[in-house]
Design brief:
- The chain is of the alpha+beta class.
- Among the domains are: about 80 residues, Alpha-Beta Plaits; about 90 residues, Alpha-Beta Plaits (2-Layer Sandwich).
- The strands form 3 sheets. Strands 6, 7, 8, 9, 10 and 11 form a 6-stranded antiparallel β-sheet that branches. A 4-stranded antiparallel β-sheet has the order 3-4-2-5. A 3-stranded antiparallel β-sheet has the order 12-1-13.
- The chain starts with 5 loop residues before the first strand and ends with a strand.
Length: about 375
């Protein structure tokens, strides 16, 4: 049995060969234009579908998600630091005052450090929220309020409210968000109202994720891309959910860490986020945008710090860049090895090419 060798070729080469074969004359007679277009479309359809899926995946916006379990945060106040009180003493006092069996946490709690150095106690289980409420109530009795702050952290999200009239105020907007979003008024933060080119006013607000998602949901009968509605006085304003912002240090303007753990030798805490000059804030700045972080790194700086045009920097970003570079290098080496690989005809090859499982992993061409 005399058969030829089987060559493993690069992905995409087989499709190009099929396209060239369809465009070539057959039996001395060229195919008609209609037949050629139909066959070419059949060959190109899978590639176009894969490209469209990749574009949709890359362009998909990130939406904030609600926390899966409740938690309690214990934070030392400045008065405790003046008295020399440490977290070890506070947590020891808390363990002596709280019985996990009494509050329903027989499985125990999960311990973590927050970005500002506080202690976070995560409450697992089906009744996570109830356990956290009982734990907060018990700790507030056992620990002094002027030295230790005990609270329930809430995951927040940003929304943009547009179409407001001249009579709207920050307090009125905050009350409308709390009432229609079903959240506490203390957990709502509203920025400064600004007038647009059309004369209507807009404002950015921050509220719990559940409330933000509910307010940004389009009314019944509207398409998915339409904004939600928020009634502020007489006006039915538009509400859109914003993408989560990058974790940025307010001291050095870099990403990947917070103010409490900043180790940079450069202090930009007094600079404006818009123009990079000291003495004022970005809310009242009218100068041309100039990013101090990108300017120090030798990059284009004609934008505000932290904007979409700002290149993220920091330890995490640099580490991710190195990881992506290594992954790209491994993929290039793997593609080169597959392109040059030749397997003997003794190896079983599924009929029709391919590997049978994971279609598209490699293309096998019988010579």
């Amino acid at each position: 049995m005399d058969e030829g060798w089987t060559e493993v070729v690069k992905r995409g080469k087989k499709a190009r060969q099929q396209t060239a074969a369809l465009a070539a004359p057959r039996g001395g007679r060229a195919p008609t234009a209609a037949a050629r277009s139909t066959e070419l479309a059949a060959v190109a359809a899978p590639r176009e579908n894969r490209a469209l899926a990749a574009r949709k995946k890359n362009g998909k916006k990130k939406r904030p998600r609600a926390a899966r379990s409740a938690a309690v945060v214990v934070t030392l106040l400045p008065a405790a630091a003046e008295k020399g009180l440490t977290y070890n003493e506070v947590m020891a006092r808390a363990r002596a005052a709280v019985s996990l069996d009494e509050i329903g946490a027989e499985e125990g709690l999960r311990f973590r450090h927050t970005a500002n150095g506080a202690k976070l106690l995560e409450c697992p289980g089906a009744d996570s929220s109830g356990i956290a409420d009982k734990l907060v109530a018990t700790l507030r009795v056992a620990l002094p309020e002027d030295e230790v702050r005990v609270h329930r952290p809430v995951r927040m999200a940003d929304i943009r409210i547009t179409g407001l009239d001249d009579c709207a105020t920050k307090e009125e907007v905050a009350a409308a968000i709390a009432a229609q979003g079903g959240c506490a008024l203390e957990s709502v933060t509203v920025g400064e109202l600004r007038s647009g080119y059309s004369g209507a006013r807009s404002v950015w607000a921050r509220c719990p994720v559940e409330a933000a998602t509910s307010l940004a949901t389009p009314p019944p009968g509207r398409s998915t891309g339409d904004p939600g509605r928020l009634r502020v006085g007489w006006i039915a304003a538009h509400v859109r959910l914003q993408e989560p912002r990058a974790w940025r240090c307010l001291r050095c303007f870099s990403t990947g860490h917070g103010l409490a753990r900043c180790t940079s030798s450069v202090d930009r805490s007094g600079l404006c986020f818009r123009c990079g000059q000291p003495g004022h804030k970005a809310a009242s700045c009218t100068a041309a945008p100039h990013c101090a972080l990108c300017a120090a790194a030798g990059r284009r700086a004609n934008h505000r710090a932290g904007g979409k045009a700002c290149f993220p920097s920091g330890d995490n970003t640099e580490r991710n860049r190195r990881r992506k570079s290594k992954r790209r290098q491994k993929r290039r080496l793997a593609r080169g090895a597959l392109a040059n690989a030749v397997i003997p005809d003794a190896a079983p090859v599924p009929e029709g090419g391919g590997s049978g499982e994971g279609e598209g992993a490699m293309d096998v061409v019988q010579q």
